[in-house]
Specification:
Layout (H helix, E strand, L loop, with lengths): L4 E4 L3 E6 L16 H8 L10 E3 L7 E7 L2 H12 L4 E9 L6 E4 L3 E3 L7 E3 L11 E8 L3 E8 L6 H8 L22 E9 L6 E5 L4 H9 L14
Parallel strand pairs: 4-11
Antiparallel strand pairs: 1-2, 2-4, 3-4, 5-10, 5-11, 6-9, 7-8, 9-10, 11-12
């Protein structure tokens, strides 16, 4: 797999992962993962360097993945990306016309005890992990809405379950969405990120271009891609 490198220096990389690619090897996906491609890319690196992925991105979500080149930098990047000073913005295309311009969803989440591959909203007080997704409606039609989602916390499947819990399932989501959707994967894209460099402290800002299939979906729904040019990165 050829890597789409958005940023690289001696400390870290930021790559644009296509949908359909597993991040880490698993018993079901032993090869062809993003980590395999990163190890091939790192063949010429210094012996002390080894690529490790900071955070995670679902197989069928596209967009930004941050990669550390040493264990020490991995730990630093984890702390930085989990802080409130960093920005992680996603684009989500959801079913239905979202009836508010912006808001925040803070339902606590927990692993579904009946299926540990899924996440559910905690219904009892004190259960679940604190979670927050901020959102802004960029465009909407009677059929669908385009949302900018900002992760304040980074729980597994957080955006997917938070939006679905409000009646706005992500198009193409096979778990929390609508089974009749014809889009081949969840229409969720890790679009923009901003964070402090772990060595220099300088601000790094990256943007992952929308993949062709997501552009086609938006255009087919009647959205104007030009709306994205006016979204500020705070």
């Amino acid at each position: 797999m050829e890597l789409d490198v958005l940023y690289e220096d001696d400390t870290l990389m930021v790559v644009n992962k296509p949908a359909g690619i597993v991040v880490h090897p698993t018993y079901r996906n032993t090869s062809g993962t993003l980590l395999d491609a990163l190890r091939a890319h790192a063949s010429g690196w210094h012996d002390s360097q080894n690529p490790t992925i900071v955070g995670r991105l679902d197989k069928d979500t596209s967009g930004i993945v941050v990669v550390a080149k040493t264990a020490a930098h991995h730990a630093s990047l984890q702390r930085i990306l989990q802080s409130t000073d960093s920005v992680k913005d996603y684009l989500a295309v959801v079913r239905g016309s979202v009836n508010v311009e912006r808001g925040a969803i803070s339902d606590p989440l927990l692993v579904d005890p009946s299926d540990r591959r899924q996440v559910i909203v905690a219904t009892e007080s004190g259960n679940g992990r604190a979670s927050e997704t901020q959102f802004e409606r960029l465009e909407h039609t009677g059929e669908a809405s385009l949302l900018l989602c900002r992760l304040i916390t980074g729980r597994r499947h957080q955006i997917r379950i938070h939006l679905a819990s409000r009646g706005w399932p992500i198009i193409g989501d096979p778990v929390y969405g609508n089974a009749i959707d014809e889009f081949p994967r969840q229409a969720l894209h890790a679009w923009r990120a901003a964070f402090a460099h772990p060595v220099s402290g300088q601000q790094i800002r990256v943007e992952a271009p929308l993949p062709p299939e997501l552009q086609s979906l938006l255009l087919g729904l009647g959205f104007q891609l030009s709306v994205l040019r006016h979204v500020s990165l705070l």
